[in-house]
Amino acid sequence: MTGYLIAAVAALLFAWLSMEAVNVFVPISRRGMQIGGAVVLTLIGVVIVTQVQFYYPVPPREPLPCGDGVDYDTRDGLCYKLVPKQYRRY
Fold first, then answer.
1. DSSP helix/strand/coil, 12
2. In this structure, are residues 73 and 79 in contact, taking their beta carbons and an 8 Å threshold?
3. Rounded distance between C-alpha atoms, residue 67 and residue 51, angstroms
4. Cβ distance 64 to 83 under 8 Å?
5. Strand order in the sheet with 79-80
6. Which residues contact 48 (CB under 8 A, 6 or more apart)?
7. From residue 30, how far is each of 26, 27, 36, 87 by CA, in Å?
8. Cβ(79)–Cβ(63) under 8 Å?
9. Whether the predicted model's global pTM rises above the 0.70 cut
């Protein structure tokens, strides 16, 4: 949890500093700085999400033998450990 907080603060600081650096060379209104900061933060978020999905991919679902603690999935007719309630059959 602390890592996410540090990353969020770093992203906010980077967005603020980058907009101040742009403002030195090209005068930007306060509203323009707010919009530019939001765009920079959005881009940082997109990069972080794509990197997390690249380094921590979702593991493939492997069917298990039906029994205790394993639910039947009506979508494909196989049994899995975790099945959403709307697709379970007991």
1. helix
2. yes
3. 37
4. no
5. 79-80, 71-73, 88-89
6. 7, 11
7. 13, 10, 10, 51
8. yes
9. no
